[in-house]
């Protein structure tokens, strides 16, 4: 990304909703190491100690990320309700979907924007989906069909708003 593109995106973050939802996106990313620690260390330990069955282990492994995102987003809904600000309902719904839930707040930002195009949200979505496409083992990689299809998925989200 060029320096001028970075300045342009930064200037658009000054809008109140953009700044708030971009920060919320950062929190969703910041809680990932905690969630991964629970998934990879605590849950297997509980299983090894016989405190979790296989079914509960699988359910907890699948639900840890969505649960953590939902707890945070739910607290933001309560906080915004008390302050009379827009509540991130879209982020709450998207947040329960594994993998896609990581982009709940960029999607919320895009949906909440009053302009036809919200450049920070679009950038976050396209960049995130491109990284997912590039990171797919075997078929993925930079400038592969997988990365391009991931970008098309982001494009569909952008057009759906």
Please tell me about this protein's structure.
- It is built from eight helices and no strands.
- It is mainly α.
- It has one domain (3-160).
- The two termini are 25 Å apart.
- The model has no long low-confidence stretch (mean pLDDT 80).
Name its key features:
mainly alpha, single chain
Note the beta-strand portion: under 5%
The SS-based structural class is mainly alpha
Query: Order of SSEs, N→C?
Result: HHHHHHHH
Terminal residue distance: 25 Å
How much is the average pLDDT? 80
Assembly state of the chains shown: single chain
Individual helix count: 8
Largest sheet: none
What's the topology here?
Blueprint: H1 3-12, H2 16-30, H3 32-48, H4 54-83, H5 89-95, H6 104-112, H7 119-135, H8 145-160
Helix pairs in contact: 2-6, 3-4, 4-5, 5-6, 6-7, 7-8
């Amino acid at each position: 990304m060029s320096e001028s593109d970075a300045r342009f995106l930064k200037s658009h973050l000054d809008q109140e909703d953009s700044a708030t939802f971009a920060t919320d996106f950062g929190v969703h990313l910041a809680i990932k190491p905690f969630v991964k620690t629970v998934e990879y260390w605590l849950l297997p330990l509980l299983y090894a100690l016989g405190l979790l069955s296989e079914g509960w282990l699988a359910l907890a492994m699948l639900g840890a990320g969505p649960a953590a995102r939902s707890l945070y987003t739910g607290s933001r809904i309560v906080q915004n309700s008390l302050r009379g600000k827009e509540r991130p309902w879209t982020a709450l719904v998207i947040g329960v979907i594994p993998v896609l839930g990581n982009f709940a707040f960029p999607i919320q930002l895009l949906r909440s924007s009053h302009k036809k195009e919200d450049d920070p949200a679009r950038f976050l979505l396209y960049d995130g989906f491109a990284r997912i496409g590039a990171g797919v083992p075997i078929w993925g990689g930079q400038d592969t069909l997988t990365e391009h299809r991931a970008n098309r998925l982001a494009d569909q989200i952008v057009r759906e708003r």
